[in-house]
Design goal:
Distance between the termini: 77 Å
Number of helices: 3
Helix content: 25-40%
Strand order of the largest sheet: 2-1-3
Order of helices and strands: HEHEHE
Radius of gyration: 29 Å
Shape: elongated
Largest sheet: 3 strands, parallel
């Protein structure tokens, strides 16, 4: 390699270095993802909402009323109705014992997801 070839290779390599990744990605273009508005979706997400709580449980509060706690959470969900417009809470049950899930098995299998709200432990 003579001096002229060396300088050309060095300058070419330097230009590629300064150009960075943009030199090789000119054909790809930027990846832009658009936010999908809940009103634009064709179908709703099916979510089973299960409130898990035992009446008169000792934790977190021995005097807790699971029904009033459930209503309080329901009020919070109702306030967020617009943000949850694409969510269909098609199961909405209070579960106190594992045996209470058996009658819901077929409906739960249709769910895209399960939201478990722990009222008591």
């Amino acid at each position: 390699m003579n001096r002229r070839e060396f300088i050309q290779a060095t300058v070419g390599g330097g230009l590629l270095y300064l150009g960075g990744p943009g030199v090789f990605s000119f054909a790809v273009g930027p990846q832009v993802t658009r936010l999908v508005s809940p009103g634009c979706r064709g179908s709703k997400v099916k979510v089973a909402r299960l409130y898990l709580g035992i009446p008169k449980a000792h934790y977190p509060n021995p005097a807790i009323d699971v029904e009033s706690e459930r209503r309080e959470y329901q009020g919070r969900f109702d306030k967020s109705k617009e943000e949850l417009a694409d969510v269909d809470f098609f199961v909405d049950e209070l579960i106190g014992k594992p045996e209470e899930l058996a009658p819901l098995k077929e409906r739960l299998q249709q769910a895209d997801g399960i939201l478990a709200v722990h009222l008591t432990l």
